[in-house]
Amino acid sequence: MTDAQHLFDAARTQINSVAADVERHFDLVASHLREWIPSGPSALVKAPPRRLPPPTTYEVITRWMDRNRALTAALVAFAVTGTVSTGIYVQNRKANKKRRARKSASGARTDVVVLAGATSSPLASAVALDLERRGFVVYVATSSAEEETYIRSLSRADLLPLPITLGDPFSAQEQLSRFQNLLGREHVAFDGAEPHHLEFKGLVLVPDTGAAPEGRIGELANEEWSDMLNAKMLNTIAMTQLFLPTLIAHQSKILLLTPSITPALQPPGHAAENAIYAALKAFTSTLAVEMKEQSTGVTITQFKLGNLDIPSVTAKQRREGQPASRVKATPLRELNNAVFDTLVARRPAAMLRVGRGSLTYDLIGAVAPRSVVAWMLSLGRKGQESAEELKREEMVGSQASLTWEKIDDQD
């Protein structure tokens, strides 16, 4: 082989090697391009930039509040002050609202209320007098001549006794018939006046549950249980049954006023009062369901009473020298306003709490363990015992001073 031929072969080998390297390089570049470039033609079009969703109202408000913190604090303070002021204004206006029963065109009274229960109790007397003062014709159910005499001694023209003898069903039905005739006939206030009818607004039940005998269950005799249940529970149920047809005919209301603090805590020695309260509560609840099921239009409202300031009771305690309670009681006016509003309301509430402690003690009795309730009752009992001991010491001291005065007089 000549030198020229050898040189030509070497050059061709070198060129083939370079060409092979270039081909491998292009193959590598092409493989990388195939990986980077999408296969579909639509993928070559650039997607528009993603838009964020518009901010919500809450986000706009929070961003504005963050930018204007001083103004936000001023607005919040103004809103809180305005809300509190509005609430106080509404409460004062509600408390000072003029509450008067309706009258006929001639100015005569037309709304009638019957009050039954503990006729001579301070609470029942206060409620009856207030209803009469607000323009109702109030009939108080009585069962004896003494109760009639007491009602007439109050000297109110439209506060009248309504004799009801529950022990004699025939007499009670006859007495109720006279009351129904009174509601059914026309009345004339004076000569020439336009006749009007009386409207039966409601039956107010005020059983004297607080006067139930105290004592351990084993200490109460069967006769005491029988007398107590007949006088305070069965009489209330019988009175409601007696007036039920009249209540349905006039679509009137039933109001039950019962103390709630003692039944809520259920202290020992008060089994009689707790039993009466539970029975009356079950009775009114069942009656309310029956009246609603029958679409009679009769509504039942239970008043759970707390600590009320009854003026006659407070005055008696002061005369007897009893120390004033450190806890301020709720004025009786709140109960009177609630009773009036319930009688004239179209849809009264099924339950109302009136008086300090009516809600608090109810929650404590329902939630707190019995040990906590017993501890609270023991504190109250110790305070009562210390007050009684102090009163006894004062009485002993006063008696001793009187004795010394008598000795001085003798000398």
Describe what you observe in this structure.
The chain has helices at 3-36, 57-67, 69-95, 122-133, 145-153, 169-184, 222-250, 261-265, 271-293, 311-319, 332-344, 360-367, 370-410; strands spanning 111-117, 137-142, 159-163, 199-206, 253-259, 299-305, 308-309, 330-331, 351-354. The strands form two sheets. A seven-stranded parallel β-sheet has the order 3-2-1-4-5-6-9, with helices on both faces. It has a two-stranded parallel ribbon with strand order 7-8. Among the domains are: 111-358, NAD(P)-binding Rossmann-like Domain (Rossmann fold), CATH 3.40.50.720; 370-397. Helix content is 58%, strand content 12%. Helix 4 (122-133) links the parallel strand 1 and strand 2. The radius of gyration is 43 Å and the shape is elongated. The model is unreliable at 382-411 (pLDDT under 50). It is built from 13 helices and nine strands. The chain is an alpha/beta fold.
Provide the descriptors you would attach to this structure in a database record.
411 residues; alpha/beta; Rossmann fold; seven-stranded parallel β-sheet; two-stranded parallel ribbon; 13 helices; disordered C terminus
